[in-house]
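Hi R.,

Quick one: here's the Bcr/CflA family efflux transporter sequence you asked about.
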Amino acid sequence: MASIIRRQFIAAFPLQTVGSSHSRTWVVHRNIALIPLFYREVRTVTDTNADAWVSSKHQPMGFPEFVIVIASIMALNPLAMDMMLPALPDIASTFHVTAANKPQEVLSSFLIGFGIGQFIMGPLSDRFGRRPVLIDGMALYCVGSILAIMSSSFEMLLLARVLQGLGTSATRVIATSIVRDCYAGRRMASVVSLAMMIFIAVPVIAPSLGEALMALTEWRGIFVVLMLYGVFALIWSAVRLPETLAVNERKSLAIRDVLGAFRQTVTNRQTLGYAVAAGGVQGSLFAFVFSSQQVFTQIYGLGHYFPLAFAAAAIGTAIAGFLNARFVGRIGMRVISHGALVGFVAVAGIMLLAAKMGMLPLALFVSLAALMMFAFGLMFANFTSLAMEPQGKIAGTASSLYGSITTLLGIGIGTTIGQSYDGTLLPFATGFFLCTLASLTVVLIVEKGRLFTPHARAAN
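And here's the predicted structure, written out as C-alpha cells:
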C-alpha cells in the first residue's frame, strides 16, 4: 500500500525548477537533500516549485504517512455522517419517531456539534498545541459513540451525536491547522487534495458499509464500529503524529487576543469571502446527504440498494480530489476552483430545469449529482487553501472560524432544503441551484469580477 501511494505522489508532484515570475515566496531554512528518492533540496519555495518540497515539521513521519494520517482523522466526520444513512428508518422505528423528516436530526445534530465545536478548538490548539487538542477531541468522539450505543431515547441519541460532532470538530480544525503549519500556497492545496482524495472515498463506501452492518446487527452496531475506528485513529495519531506548532508560536487565550484573531480572520476579504462561498456549496452537499435516503428509496424505489446509487454520485468527489492534487500545482487554485464553480452552477441549472419538466429519471439524476460532486471536490480543497493562505500566524483560530462558518452555513442551508422535501425533487434541485449561484456571486465580489486569475497576478 505504501509503495503504491509513494509512486502516486511521485506522479502527482513532478519536480520543477527553482525560480518563478510569481512574487510570493517562502524561504526554507532546512536542507532536506538527504531525504531519499523523490525529495530534493529546495531553498526557496514558490507557487511553481512547491511540489518539490517536503516539510520537516511532521518528521519522523514521511510524506505518504503524513497525508494518510491527516486523511484518517478527517475521515471520522464523513464516517459518522454517511454510515448512519441506512439506519435512519430503523432508528425512527426504535424510538417511535413518526414525523417523516425528523430522522434527519440524527445527521443535523451531529453537524451542529461539529460546527459549534470549531469555534473552540482553534483557539485551544493555538494556545496548547495541536496534539493535545486533537487527542482530547478524538477521546470525546469515542465517549459520544459509547453514549449512542447506550441510548434509551431519541433525545439521548441526539445528545450523543452532538458530542460526536464536538469531538470531530477537533479533527477537522487540527488537520487543517497541521497542514497549514507545514505547507502553504499551492503545496498546501495539493496536500489537502491528496488527503481529501483518500478520505472522500469514505462517503462512497460508508452507506454500503452501514447497510452491511444493518444486515448483521441493529443500528447500534454502527456506533460500535465508529467507536473502534475512533480508538484506532486516536492511537495512531498519539504514537506517530508530532507537534507542529512550536512553543514560541503559540497564542494567548486572553479574550482580547482571541477576539483580535477572530477579527483578523473575518476582516480579511479573501478568508471571509471563500468561507461564505464554501458554506453555500457545502449546504448543497449537506442537502444531498440529508435527503438521499428519502430520494433514492421513496422517489426511485431503490430500497436497500440506495447506497449503490449514493456511491455512484459520491465517487465524483474522490476522482476530483485525485485530479486536483495532480494539477493544482501547475494550473493554480483559482483557475480550478472557479471553473468548477461555474460548472456546478450550470449542472444545477440543468437539474432544476429537468425537475420542473418532470424529466429526471434515475440515470440522469445520478449523472448530474455525480457531476456536481465532482465540481464540489475540485472546489472545496482549493477554497479552504485560498481562505487559509493569509492566516499562517493564526492558523488554528482561522481554521476554527473558517470551519464554523462553512459548517453552520451548510447546516442551515442543508437543513432548510432537507426539511422542505415533499416527495418531489423540485425543492432539492431549486436549493442546489440557488446555493451555487449565491456562492458564485460571492466569489465574483471577492475577486472583484476577475475569475480564473492566478494568485500572484491578482496580487499585482
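The first strand starts at residue 25 and ends at 27.

Cheers,
M.
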